[in-house]
Design goal:
Layout lengths: L7 H6 L46 H22 L4 H14 L1 H15 L9 H4 L3
Length: 131
């Protein structure tokens, strides 16, 4: 890395560990319908335990709910502004919300890790050990 460390936003978008910003939080792809929710218990690089207490990620449900509500409002407003029929609006909003579940799930957990977790502080010494 030669003195340059990964950015916080880039690490959040690529679902990396909040402490070392290089270990993957999720084991599978967001596009895998059966594996999008599989999370590593520990960071493969710095060994940070992601769920530091039982039920920690239950708080991500509230963030996910907010994401889903936002998606529904945005797509609903777009559909109404285009004068679509109610059937087409409902189908569009529901389909879009269902298709965005993996991203809502993942980024609600990542946001929880980066904002609320007591281990959210970036510690570059974990990356320096890899050199």
């Amino acid at each position: 890395m030669q003195g340059k460390y990964p950015s916080k936003i880039g690490s959040m978008l690529s679902c990396k560990c909040p402490r070392c910003r290089s270990g993957k939080v999720f084991t599978g792809s967001a596009f895998d319908p059966t594996g999008f929710s599989k999370t590593n218990d520990y960071c493969p690089v710095c060994q940070l335990k992601f769920e530091h207490e039982t039920g920690f990620f239950w708080g991500a449900m509230y963030i996910s709910y907010a994401f889903s509500t936002l998606f529904m409002i945005v797509f609903g407003v777009l559909a109404v502004n285009n004068n679509w029929s109610w059937n087409k609006i409902v189908i569009t909003v529901v389909t879009t919300s269902v298709l965005l579940v993996p991203f809502s799930y993942r980024y609600s957990r990542i946001l929880l890790l980066y904002v609320i977790s007591p281990f959210r502080k970036f510690e570059p010494e974990y990356l320096d050990k890899l050199k």
